TrEMBL record:
<protein>
    <submittedName>
        <fullName>IstB-like ATP binding family protein</fullName>
    </submittedName>
</protein>
<dbReference type="Pfam" id="PF01695">
    <property type="entry name" value="IstB_IS21"/>
</dbReference>
<dbReference type="InterPro" id="IPR002611">
    <property type="entry name" value="IstB_ATP-bd"/>
</dbReference>
<feature type="domain" description="IstB-like ATP-binding">
    <location>
        <begin position="3"/>
        <end position="87"/>
    </location>
</feature>
<dbReference type="GO" id="GO:0005524">
    <property type="term" value="F:ATP binding"/>
</dbReference>
<dbReference type="InterPro" id="IPR027417">
    <property type="entry name" value="P-loop_NTPase"/>
</dbReference>
């Protein structure tokens, strides 16, 4: 018996290697049509072309499964985690992992 509702945080924060991408694809494929998943990501869909093992075909197949029956909740604004640190002047400099 698998989890009732898997929650996978920060997908796409770091690029997936081939093995990681294949494992994630298998999890998504097994859940497809059988149960829900919650995914969070900092990277917009428009910048995920090669996020899965730098393979555009695998990324397209994964996106197809993930987006077909999904609800996208887009949140914008300042980082909640850094809010208090900014108030006292110790917020770190954030560098993007993926270039614009």
């Amino acid at each position: 018996m698998g989890p009732r509702l898997p929650v996978i945080d920060e997908t796409g924060c770091l690029p997936f290697g081939r093995e990681d991408a294949n494992l994630f694809f298998n999890v998504a494929a097994k859940r497809y049509g059988r149960g829900s998943m919650i995914l969070t990501a900092d990277l917009p869909f428009s910048r995920r072309a090669g996020a899965f093992a730098n393979d555009t075909a695998l990324t397209a197949a994964m996106s197809d499964r993930l987006l077909r029956h999904c609800h996208v909740v887009r949140i914008s604004g300042e980082s909640y985690r850094l809010k208090d640190k900014k108030k006292i002047g110790i917020a770190p400099v954030i560098k993007e992992i993926y270039p614009p």
